[in-house]
Structure formats: C-alpha cells, structure tokens
C-alpha cells in the first residue's frame, strides 16, 4: 500500500465515538478516530515497512503515527529516526506507546530510554519511562543490568511525586513492569513501591485509573505471574 492509500483507508475507518473518546484522553487534531483493532488488518497486510512508517509518521496525523509504530521495522530504525518520532509525536498515546514500543524493540532502546528520561519535556520523559518498561517486559533477565535498574528505582523514588503528570504515570508503569517481569527485581521494586505509596495522576475526563504498584505486584506474585516475558513490545 502507498502512503496515500493508507491515509484513505484510515479515514474510512474513522469513528465519531472513538474520536470523541480519544479527544477526552488528550488526542489532538488531525486524526480520524480509528480503533486500534480496526488497524490490525492493515498491519497484517502491510507487515513491516520502514519507508512507509516514516512517511506515515510525518503526516502528523495521530492515527497514521500510531499505525507507523505498528508497521515500523525495528532493525532499520536509527537513533535519528527515534528522536524525530518522539519529538514530533502528536500526543502521549503515540509517544508513550507507538514510539516507546518501537524504541524498546530497536537496537537503541537503552540509549533512547536513558536519554529521554532526562528530558524536561513531559512528552519525551514519559516516553522514556515507558520505553524502559517495555525493555523490562521483552528482554531476557541476563541481558538486563540489575545495578542500572536499581539506579532507575532510586531515581523514581526521589522524583516521582514532583515530576510532570504523564511522567508520574509512566514511572509507575516502569515500577510494575520491572517488578513483575525481571526476576530478581521483585523485592527491591516492591520496597520502593511501598515507600512511594499512592501516585496521583490527573487522567482528565476519562475512566482511567492509576494502579497502586505495590498492590499490583503482590497480585502478580499471588497469581504466579512473576518473571513472565512478552515476545514483542508492540500490541
């Protein structure tokens, strides 16, 4: 499919109710309001297409940017590509998910995550923490530096309550991903989560809830779900 063909199909899939819901969650124009599930047939048809993903992202259309993340070829994504994407993502659903997922799957995940979490820009920093969360969920434990992860926990403990709104949200996501998916990180993450306590995030006019990380980790332990990995970050 060409870029123009993709954009026409996305427009045809736009749903007014979905658009209204996404606007409540913070989406900004231009976008059509396409359900993620309705994008999946397109993803299966296109498969991975590096050049097309770059073209779609540069339309600045929120639906096209999200789809770009789903079809991007992680092995071809460069540091420059990823930096361009995080800076030009139209809203946090693109930056924190589509961009963070492909960054985590790429050859530059740790580099980008560590760079982004230092940013004073809320959108970029929150993408960095969700990139780290995805790295924890897809990387073998032997490929993760536990000392580095503990330093990230220290950073979160010191800064989470004074960080930007979406950064608090994704720091909390990292706590849950690190504690659940990285075997020996459960105890240190649980200890930090307990000391942090409730994380307050303004979720606007939505029904979204912020998980209590300590309660979540205990639930995962009780369910025997600790240490489970995903094959890929994208979904």
Write up what this structure looks like.
There is one protein chain. This protein has a domain at 108-235. The chain is built from 13 helices and no strands. It is globular and about 50 Å long. With 235 residues, it is mainly α. Helix content is 64%, strand content 0%. 42% of the residues are buried.
Beta-strand percentage range: under 5%
Fraction of residues in helices? 55-70%
Number of strands: 0
- Annotation field: number of helices: 13
Biggest beta sheet summary: none
Span between N and C termini? 21 Å
How is the quaternary structure best described? Answer: single chain
- Low-confidence parts: none
Mean pLDDT over the residues:
97
- Class per helix and strand makeup: mainly alpha
Radius of gyration: 18 Å
Write the element-wise H/E pattern from the N-terminal end onward: HHHHHHHHHHHHH
Identify the overall geometry.
globular
SSE layout:
Layout: H1 3-13, H2 16-25, H3 36-46, H4 50-57, H5 62-71, H6 79-88, H7 92-105, H8 109-116, H9 122-138, H10 146-159, H11 165-181, H12 186-196, H13 213-222
Helix pairs in contact: 4-5, 5-7, 6-7, 7-8, 7-9, 8-9, 9-11, 10-12, 11-12, 11-13, 12-13
Quickly describe the structure.
By secondary structure, this protein is mainly alpha-helical. The chain has 13 helices and no strands.
């Amino acid at each position: 499919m060409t870029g123009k063909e993709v954009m026409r199909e996305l427009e045809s899939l736009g749903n007014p109710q979905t658009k209204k819901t996404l606007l409540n969650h913070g989406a900004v124009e231009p976008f059509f309001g396409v359900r993620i599930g309705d994008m999946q047939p397109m993803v299966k048809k296109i498969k991975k297409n590096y050049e097309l993903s770059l073209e779609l992202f540069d339309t600045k259309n929120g639906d096209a940017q999200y789809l770009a993340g789903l079809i991007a070829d992680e092995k071809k994504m460069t540091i420059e590509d990823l930096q361009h994407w995080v800076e030009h993502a139209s809203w946090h659903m693109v930056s924190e998910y589509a961009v963070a997922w492909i960054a985590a799957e790429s050859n530059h995940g740790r580099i980008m995550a560590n760079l982004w979490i230092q940013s004073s820009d809320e959108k970029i920093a929150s993408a960095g923490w969700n990139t780290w969360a995805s790295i924890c969920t897809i990387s073998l434990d032997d490929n993760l530096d536990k000392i580095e992860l503990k330093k990230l926990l220290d950073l979160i403990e010191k800064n989470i309550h004074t960080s930007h709104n979406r950064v608090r949200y994704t720091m909390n996501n990292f706590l849950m991903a690190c504690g659940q998916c990285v075997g020996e990180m459960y105890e240190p993450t649980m200890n930090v989560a307990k000391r942090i306590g409730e994380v307050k995030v303004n979720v606007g006019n939505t029904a979204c809830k912020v998980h209590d990380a300590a309660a979540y980790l205990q639930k995962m332990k009780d369910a025997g779900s600790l240490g489970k990995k995903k094959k890929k970050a994208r979904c």
